[in-house]
What we know:
The protein is globular and about 85 Å long. By secondary structure, it is of the alpha/beta class. The chain has helices spanning 2-29, 38-44, 75-79, 106-119, 134-147, 175-181, 187-193, 196-203, 215-226, 234-237, 239-246, 248-257, 277-285, 302-305, 307-318; strands at 57-61, 84-87, 126-131, 155-162, 262-266, 290-293. It has a 6-stranded parallel β-sheet, sandwiched between helices. Its main location: endoplasmic reticulum. One of its GO terms (molecular function) is monoacylglycerol lipase activity. Keywords: Endoplasmic reticulum, Hydrolase, Membrane, Transmembrane, Transmembrane helix.
Amino acid sequence: MVRRDRLRRMREWWVQVGLLAVPLLAAYLHIPPPQLSPALHSWKSSDSVGVVGSPEIVVLLHGFPTSSYDWYKIWEGLTLRFHRVIALDFLGFGFSDKPRPHHYSIFEQASIVEALLRHLGLQNRRINLLSHDYGDIVAQELLYRFKQNRSGRLTIKSLCLSNGGIFPETHRPLLLQKLLKDGGVLSPILTRLMNFFVFSRGLTPVFGPYTRPSESELWDMWAGIRNNDGNLVIDSLLQYINQRKKFRRRWVGALASVSIPIHFIYGPLDPVNPYPEFLELYRKTLPRSTVSILDDHISHYPQLEDPMGFLNAYMGFINSF
């Protein structure tokens, strides 16, 4: 009899816990996105016009899972060198639309870049591409189209890559990326449960020990992701990892076969594209490309961790031809 009463009380306790947990979980899953900081508001409305008299144009292609705001620390320096500095948020990122369900692909992102430049009347201009991480793969597809000499495609003057997994065999995705990229039954649960704590704990380790973002900078990154419920499409965006493996020959082949100037700016402490494996394969595959290796403590986000070193490396490349 005592045992039955104990079991009954335990069942009642769990029922009460469940009744309490359901509204709490429901509230948690519908937490509104954070307010945009003044810096993000300013970035959203910033202009792309740079130095008067220069004919040069540079297009900035950002990485995963963040946005074009990744370039804010070198933006002013670029506007002092280029006539137009253009930074877009890819579909599914930052302030762009984030449709779901949707088949996100590198091919679509490359077409969006082309459409944007046509819209700006720049389709016949020679374009410098500066890319990072996910943006490196988009740049590779743009380079492939340029190599094919298809009408209506971009005319690329130069390409500068940075800390992107352009080789599937040397890329080391984070644990959460591995779980999400295959689109299993856990994906919609994990993306809906993702919060600032999970995000910051996952992103911080890809920065160097002395160059990690402040909490306010992490909140800006998270605000960009949460805008338009972007956390719910992260698993769809991560299909680029599978696409990169499937189309390796197309995209690596494009890098290896074009004659335009190509440069790579590398933060060597990057756990995603580890040293020396990545750099050895890069130099073997692209012997004509030049490389800038930043300080030993710079990691996966070199433009944020060492903006002056990154900018100097890029200007050295641009001024070399």
